Amino acid sequence: MKILKIILALSLIFNVAAAVFMATGGICYDEKHSVSKKLKAIVHRPKSTYFMGRDLIFEILPADSQAIVFLGDSHTEHFLLEELLGKEHLKNRGISGDRVKKMIPRLEPIVAMSPKKIFIQGGINDLGTGDSKEDLMSYYTELMDEITLKSPKSKVYLQSMFPTELKDGSTYCNPQVNKDIQVVNEFLEQEAKKRGFTYIEIYKSLAVNGLLNPDYSFDGIHLTAEGYLVWTKILKPYLEE
User: Fold this and answer.
1) Fewer CB atoms near the end CB (10 Å): N or C, the chain?
2) 8 A C-beta contact, residue 121 and residue 227
3) Is the pLDDT assigned to residue 32 strictly greater than 60?
4) Within a 10 A sphere around the Cβ of 198, how many other Cβ atoms?
5) How far is CA 149 from CA 15, 96, 112, 144, 182, in A?
6) Closest CA to 131 of 189, 172, 173, 191
7) Alpha carbon distances (Å) from 154 to 51, 118, 143, 157, 184
8) pLDDT in tens, 137-152
9) Domain 49-239 is classified in which CATH homologous superfamily?
10) How far apart (Å, rounded) are the C-alpha atoms in residues 77 and 54?
11) How far apart (Å, rounded) are the C-alpha atoms in residues 203 and 231?
12) Domain spans of the chain, in order of start
């Protein structure tokens, strides 16, 4: 009886191993490494179904080496790029609620097509959910390093963070966040010069006394149509370069 139990246990182990092997298609080391990286990226994505649905569809879209990619959060997702900027090959890769640290694991399909230009705008969700300005600058550094390494021919544009208004009890709209935004913008401008990127100053055109102009926002963070027109006017010359 003891021998029979041992035989059954060994059989179970071999069957599980075979199932794992078949599931991975008998992949070699390099392929396993690639799959491992992919699974790691998925694990580090936010768990919201909206984020996952939008993120995963980006991965099946056709590659375009002439692409002008806009990577960002809700500011970018809500930007009607084609209508307002009037250029071909515009790719909106904004996701509402996204953070700079979560943009890093979703870079792969972007850099894989070696796009012509990459415009980056983000960070408010990092600061608003409790990350420090030092954390955010670290995330930005990793993001920029990845793009430089994997898509060296792409022209990169670092757009300044936008100001916010002040709202009682808000983790986004408060004096400390607005101070941190200015520090991060100084960092982005310096990094752009150091790396040969282009820094785009948007903050000053949206701000009044260091806060987001209420005419350009309906909730203290997100832009109104007028706010998007200001942003559009600033961006157009960079699209013609």
Assistant:
1) N
2) no
3) no
4) 16
5) 42, 27, 11, 9, 27
6) 172
7) 25, 7, 14, 10, 23
8) 999 999 999 999 999 9
9) SGNH hydrolase (3.40.50.1110)
10) 10
11) 10
12) 1-43, 49-239
